[in-house]
Design a protein that fits this description.
146 residues, mainly alpha, 7 helices
């Protein structure tokens, strides 16, 4: 069974997994769906919702944890923790706009949770960032196809 065989549910699942700590890329699934004729607007909505919910799960993973756990279990350097804390304190929930970025986005979502950044603004900015990302991918795909 392939991702495209799952249709919109496959896109949702792919985008959700891509926003968790699992290394997974959803762009190819999205492009494949567009290539075979799935509706771009529906793909944009589903990809945004799936990726945002995946990011929210990373946020809550961080919310349940603490930096002391990260230091003890994952050997995270304390100086790196302080740099993250400074950035999160400086930019706050606006940082969630970058949760779409590969690798660092997952870490940002977790850090926002660990530092207990307010949920509603985080989820709002996270959604906006992920929406803009997928909109740009769909726009680029359509530009190439034209």
């Amino acid at each position: 069974m392939e991702w495209l065989d799952l249709g919109y549910f496959g896109l949702f699942l792919a985008t959700f997994l891509a926003a968790t700590i699992l290394p997974f890329s959803s762009e190819a699934i999205l492009a494949g769906m567009l290539y075979v004729g799935f509706d771009p607007i529906m793909c944009l909505i589903i990809a945004t919702v799936g990726n945002t919910l995946g990011g929210v799960s990373s946020y809550f993973l961080g919310y349940l944890g603490s930096w002391s756990i990260l230091h003890r279990w994952f050997k995270v350097d304390e100086s790196k923790t302080e740099r993250w804390r400074e950035k999160i304190n400086k930019y706050g929930s606006f940082t969630a706009l970058l949760c779409w970025a590969p690798v660092i986005g997952d870490l940002l979502a977790i850090a926002l949770g660990v530092f207990r950044t307010k949920m509603l603004p985080v989820f709002t900015f996270m959604t906006v960032g992920k929406f803009l990302r997928y909109a740009a991918i769909i726009w680029a795909y359509n530009s190439i196809q034209a």
